[in-house]
Amino acid sequence: MSAGAPHDVVNTGELPFPCVVVDLETTGLDPSTCRIIQMAALVVEPSGQVSHTFSTVVKPEQPAEYEHGAEHIHGISADDVSRGMALSHALDHLLSLLPLGTFAGHNASFDLGFLHAEAERLGRIFPVIEHIDTLAVSRRSDPEKLRSHRLSELCVHHDIVLDGAHTALGDATATAQLLSALLREAEIITPDQLPLVVSEYRAKTA
């Protein structure tokens, strides 16, 4: 686990407003049955400077209910998970960073689905509804659907080095740089334009 101001994260590029860029690695795609096993967050100031970073492997609170999965994607072993930070502590740390900026992520509704589900398992509420989703912003800039909007492909398109793909910190760092590039492309340059790129999380219902 690392926390505090990072020493190895690049300046991500200027933003009109501070953001907390979050990425998760999970055991699968369904938040009702799968679990968060890695979490990262970068607090990015308008200058592009990363003022805080948080990255940890996450250990589930109910190990008996945990089923390991997707190791071929994220490379995190069951042993790594067993030695990770307890989910409740990881959520506490993430929650402590959220007041510092607008929540942002790539396919952020996926991450928020897991964060809401995991908080509910602990009898808690995850407070984030409004967020910036770089996937949605990128799609809006491509109405004719001429390019892929996968994180890896967008990094190539915007000349961003994706170092540590499918690790939470690697993907969060690339997403922060992508956010800066996409907001410049969309001419979002002042804080009062924030509502133009904010999405609202809606939980999926059966």
Protein described:
The chain is of the alpha/beta class. It has a single domain, classed as Nucleotidyltransferase, domain 5. Helices cover 32% and strands 21% of the residues. The chain has 7 helices and 8 strands. Strands 1, 2, 3, 4, 5, 6, 7 and 8 form an 8-stranded mixed beta sheet that branches. Helix 4 links the parallel strand 6 and strand 7. The model has no long low-confidence stretch (mean pLDDT 89).
Short structural summary:
The chain is an alpha/beta fold and 206 residues long.
Question: Could you give the topology of this structure?
Answer:
Elements: E1 2-4, E2 19-26, E3 36-44, E4 50-59, H1 71-74, H2 78-82, E5 85-86, H3 87-97, E6 102-105, H4 108-121, E7 130-133, H5 134-140, H6 151-157, H7 168-185, E8 198-200
Parallel strand pairs: 2-6, 4-5, 6-7
Antiparallel strand pairs: 1-4, 2-3, 3-4, 7-8
Q: How do the SSEs run, as a string of H and E?
A: EEEEHHEHEHEHHHE
CATH class: Alpha Beta
Topology, number of strands:
8
> Oligomeric status of the shown chains?
single chain
CATH architecture descriptor name:
2-Layer Sandwich
| Largest sheet entry | 8 strands, mixed
Provide the low-confidence segments as ranges: none
How many helices? Answer: 7
CATH fourth-tier homologous superfamily: Ribonuclease H-like superfamily/Ribonuclease H
CATH topology: Nucleotidyltransferase, domain 5
Structural class estimated from helices and strands: alpha/beta
User: Which strand-content bin applies to the residues?
Assistant: 15-25%
- Global geometry: globular
Distance between the termini: 36 Å
Rounded Rg: 16 Å
Helix content: 25-40%
Q: How many domains would you count in the coordinates?
A: 1
Could you report the average pLDDT, rounded to the nearest whole number?
A: 89
